[in-house]
Specification:
CATH architecture of the largest domain: 3-Layer(aba) Sandwich
CATH topology of the largest domain: Rossmann fold
Strand order of the largest sheet: 3-2-1-4-7-8
Distance between the termini: 53 Å
CATH superfamily of the largest domain: NAD(P)-binding Rossmann-like Domain
Number of domains: 2
Structural class: alpha/beta
Order of helices and strands: EHEHEEEEHEHEHEHEHHHHH
Shape: elongated
Bound molecules: nicotinamide-adenine-dinucleotide
Low-confidence stretches: 304-315
CATH class of the largest domain: Alpha Beta
Mean pLDDT: 91
Number of helices: 11
Length: 315
Amino acid sequence: MSDVVIVGSGVVGTATGKGLASAGHAVTFVDINPQRLEELRAEGYEATDRIELSEEPTIVFLVLPTPSGPTGYDLSALTAGVSNVGAALGRSSGFHTVVLRSTTPPGTCDDVIRPILEATSGKTEGEGFALASNPEFLRAATALEDFLSPAMTVIGSRSTLTVQRLVELFRPFGGPVRTFSTTAEAELVKCAHNLFNAAKISFWNELWLVAEHLGFNGDEVAATVAISSEGSTNPQYGIRGGAPYGGACLPKDTVGFLGFAREIGVDMPLLSAVIEVNRTMAHRVRVELAEVTDHVEELLGPDSEALVSERPSDH
Ligand SMILES: NC(=O)c1ccc[n+]([C@@H]2O[C@H](COP(=O)([O-])OP(=O)(O)OC[C@H]3O[C@@H](n4cnc5c(N)ncnc54)[C@H](O)[C@@H]3O)[C@@H](O)[C@H]2O)c1
């Protein structure tokens, strides 16, 4: 069983800490909100506003808020909490593992958190402490249930030993586990997961507006498409990068439907962007091919937008 410190005891931190405590780990919650601490103490948990690390190897989860600011992510609460963790690392002679669980842009662990931890602790990652990314995929409404039965566990660290320790920590909860040798890849997975979900929701809202305009129930249309749209979830079909869509149908149907939507007076900015992204990708593939062969026109034909990158889902 491990010693665990949760820094940031909100929705995700509480679910993480309670879930790990239920598996027998010794959990201490840390937060700056006195009311939060009182609530946790009333439930029988250790809760404090000051991080102290014993000499026992401890897993410190950073579960601090990462809201968006005017120009991107606002990481100020995260960096403030990380400085306190670094100071605690500096006061302890134990070897501890710091795990970033907040959602952050790729590179935050390496480029923001590591330098702060090293500066405030006087220790070096790898020698004085370990660092990993372990983003959370739970839903706020069912936070603890989702933690106890995770859809997926993602772990990134340059230290294979640290990855193994975290895999063992989460093993009792089950679910698929994906590991990466960099923290940034794990951070990117979490961001991409949320962006994909947002894009999917916006796509169906855009279609819902068209259906509403035509007097149909958009939700019934969506539910029916979901039956056939293997390409939207199967990694072998719709989900892969590096090539535009092509084939006989997708290029014509995207452009054709955009024209139809304009005619009926429904704006489809997402569909416009889809067509634009595909043009950019087709151009990129043409340029890459031109670097390795003089026979691009023979291979692709004169029109890069008609580039055929047959996928099983390109109907
Ligand atoms: N809420 C979700 O459903 C969800 C799901 C997955 C990932 N996430 C991500 O997890 C992270 C945490 O989100 P949340 O919803 O748990 O946030 P939250 O606002 O519920 O909790 C954050 C906690 O951190 C505390 N805090 C702030 N500064 C602190 C500091 N310096 N030291 C100690 N504690 C401090 C706050 O008082 C608060 O209790 C975010 O990056 C979020 O994007 C959230």
